Amino acid sequence: MRKPKHGSTFMRYSEILRVIGQYIERANLTEIRILETDEGLVLQGEVMQGEHAGERDTYQLTPEDIAALFEDGQAMRGRKI
Length: 81
What we know:
Layout: E1 5-6, E2 9-10, H1 13-26, E3 29-37, E4 40-47, E5 56-61, H2 63-77
Antiparallel strand pairs: 1-2, 3-4, 4-5
């Protein structure tokens, strides 16, 4: 996978995994599978709540998607000034 960038620097795997973990929690997934491909990451998990509870969902996240999720997470926490 081409590593996502935050600004002009590449994101570390620990940052990528933190972002993916937050995404998994927001999507209410359990029994997670993560596959790294040339195009990014493929996530698969079982939906825990809602109308699709018990079904398996699959998501593909590109490096750009991961970088955007990282930015969203920073915006939710606020930025140090």
